[in-house]
Automatic annotation (TrEMBL), chains A, B:
Organism the protein comes from: Cutaneotrichosporon cavernicola
Taxonomic placement: Eukaryota, Fungi, Dikarya, Basidiomycota, Agaricomycotina
Stated family: Belongs to the peptidase M20A family.
GO molecular function: hydrolase activity, acting on carbon-nitrogen (but not peptide) bonds, in linear amidines
Protein name: Peptidase M20 dimerisation domain-containing protein
Gene3D superfamilies named among the record's database cross-references: 3.30.70.360, Zn peptidases
Length: 432, 432
């Protein structure tokens, strides 16, 4: 390396190696076979389980072999830091090693394995970066076993309180808390869990898209420019139960009719504002075929790429719901219980530019697309405290959180190359 | 009695006695106390339970005391037949003694106790009717313990097969079938269960409205001119589950959105045709707040007072559902599984006229109203084979199938007087 500034493609990832390592480590927690091929299974590697411990042990050993200093913090987040020419916060490459109970082999895992591959390329080529570079795995991104997603990065980012996260219990075993399980598997680290103590210079994350856009538009790389803001509600419609045969329509307070109209209206509101609205849970009482529903509970998930528009959608939807209650189904009331909310994330221009340049170098402008992340990611937490960027690669049919989740070997390697090039360019730019 | 033709009011019921007897027998199976008063409880007297046996024993003894011949048929339907001047099929007064698990004191019970009161009045006044008169209780009208409603009268009417009804099991105990429970409580009768073997000359039924119309319109008696036809469906919408954050609206096959639109459309269709449409049950899969629903199952209950209009509603609704599937939520399919259907019942002019005349005599034209029965009743089965009529009295807030179901003592007595006058007039008219 005699050039002063890194150019994309100066270093090349080993396409076979990244895929081989990904699938080798997926033997830890492989589950839900769906085809005869060696890698045709899904994953069940729940946060802080025995399988999580096993893959963390592998991660630790590999990081040490690659010359990294391994830091484990109080939430079990792991940082493998490879020194650079100068001291300073590392340019991090992070994602997560835990999966959904019926998860796939790419969600999170690809990002961590790609980081390992980048470190291997640096070692193989005896590269000394300007600043330290790190591979990171964040604890319990999925929120599947302990029901809060992204809590490792959330505590680090000071979005969630440490003690509250420690107290969370396994959804199937109230005796197994986050803290007791961190202790049990030996990953309750010494380092305080905070962006102030384990500072990051930047955070890059390679991830499968988990949606259908890249595939349908035949793009190879998504340059993620931000994450949608979202609000989650438990909506409760209260009406009055009455006999479905004997109660005239105009004398009903039909909670199910009101709920149906609100769900339909939410879609209209989302279309109008170019956002998203989804109802994924619903239940009603008393639940008899010939009884008008008294109470309906349903979830409402609204999302937008612009916080002001999200607020407008929220107001618009509540106004529509009030109107619906005043309408045909008189006497019904609607209550909005906010379960959680996350503002819009804007990724950092310097990271986004480095990723875009790297992607365009690898596959050409036409196969690259700016994209918003619809799902939450650890990068949405790191973005609160350091320059952050994400790379999306396509996944088959947009399918994720499913054993058949699939990203081609070619796309896994391509995403890793983009990560390598973006991180190297970013490191060089930190210098210049 | 020297008159040749009975005139309404010639005989009078004992208002205190009918109410006293109703509430005395409600001590068998009283449950769900909701107030401090003696009669401020609901009922739990499930079909073929120990409590049902106890009240049947009381009914048998009282019928015998009143000079009736008691016939029990193969479904446990009980006919207490008081001889008249001539032989022939009796003019029956029937309803049911079983209740919902959280039922009230009037639904069904009022009709049977009113029949007893009529027989008492006839005995007290040494009346010899032209034809026999009978008090009837039909088995398992509610369908609460054994999940088919009106099956006693349904088998009698040849609408349901006997063996199929015998095989039905207690919803909580698969070992207790209808047949084994009939045997256990001693009410598996010798008489074949058929309208051909236990012929009825007519069937009159006094019942609470179970709806809000009479009360809201301040009417005292409803002259029931028929029962609505109804069709029950289990509707299945199949879509595709996808991530609520990453799947653009136009790429979704959102089964919940389709279901919501169909439920809302069903109400529009019902308004348009002046019928009823209700969804009282709904569930979805996979059921996660940030996952677009793959499958939604919901019930659809449509009713109309006219069979042709009911058919039109059915067609209209399916067409609307297909249109909705072709619309925004592409790729969804909808399947209609018919669970049951009952055609419109038209009560017999001679019975309806006798009831109307009796009601108008008691309270005046202004307080009487023609009405359709929204719910199913044993009378809808008997109407298939003999002239049938029903009398409705108001119940508080239209509330039924609820421990707080309430009919005033005055209205119980009024309904019984109308039953007496209608049955006597009908008996006289059979003669003339």
């Amino acid at each position: 390396m005699t050039k002063t500034v890194y150019q994309p493609g100066d270093l090349r990832v080993d396409a076979k190696r990244i895929n081989a390592t990904l699938h080798e480590t997926c033997e830890i927690g492989a589950a839900h076979r769906w085809g005869p091929g060696e890698i045709e299974t899904g994953m069940c590697r729940l946060a802080l389980s025995d399988e999580d411990k096993e893959v963390r042990d592998w991660f630790t050993a590999e990081l040490k072999r690659l010359g990294c200093n391994v830091v484990v913090d109080a939430m079990g987040n792991m940082f493998g830091i490879r020194p650079g020419k100068k001291e300073g916060a590392p340019t991090a490459m992070g994602s997560h090693l835990d999966t959904q109970p019926t998860g796939g082999r790419y969600d999170g895992i690809l990002g961590v394995m790609a980081a390992i591959e980048v470190l291997r390329v640096l070692k193989d080529n005896n590269i000394e970066t300007e600043y330290p570079v790190a591979a990171v795995t964040w604890t319990n991104e999925e929120g599947a076993r302990f029901p809060t997603s992204m809590f490792g990065s959330g505590v680090w980012a000071d979005v969630l309180p440490l003690e509250q996260s420690y107290a969370l219990a396994d959804i199937h075993n109230p005796k197994a808390t986050v803290k007791s399980e961190l202790e049990r598997i030996g990953y309750l680290g010494d380092a305080p869990c905070s962006y102030k103590d384990t500072e990051l210079g930047a955070h890059f994350e390679l991830h499968i898209e988990q949606g259908p856009i890249l595939e349908r538009e035949e793009k190879k790389v998504g340059v993620v420019i931000g994450g949608q803001g979202y609000r989650w509600f438990d909506v409760v419609v209260q009406g009055r139960d009455s006999h479905a045969g004997t109660t005239p329509l105009q004398m009903r307070s039909d909670a199910m009719l009101v709920a149906a109209r609100i769900i339909a209206a939410a879609n209209d509101v989302a279309v109008k504002h170019d956002g998203l609205a989804t109802t994924g849970i619903i239940s009603l009482e008393p639940g008899s075929i010939n009884t008008v529903a008294k109470t309906v509970n349903f979830s409402m998930d609204i999302r937008h790429m612009n916080d002001d528009k999200l607020e407008e959608m929220d107001k618009d939807l509540r106004a529509r719901a009030d109107e619906i209650c005043r309408g045909a189904a008189r006497g019904c009331t609607v209550e909005w219980n906010k379960l959680s909310a996350f503002p819009v994330t804007k990724f950092h221009e310097s990271c986004v530019d480095a990723i875009r340049a790297a992607a365009e170098f690898s596959v050409g402008k036409d196969l690259v697309r700016d994209i918003y992340s619809g799902a939450g990611h650890d990068s949405c937490q790191t973005a609160l405290h350091c320059p952050t960027g994400m790379i999306f690669v396509p996944c088959k049919d947009g399918l994720s959180h499913n054993p058949e989740e699939w990203c081609t070997a070619e796309d896994c390697a391509l995403g890793t190359q983009v990560l390598l090039d973006a991180v190297m360019a970013y490191d060089a730019q930190r210098q210049s």
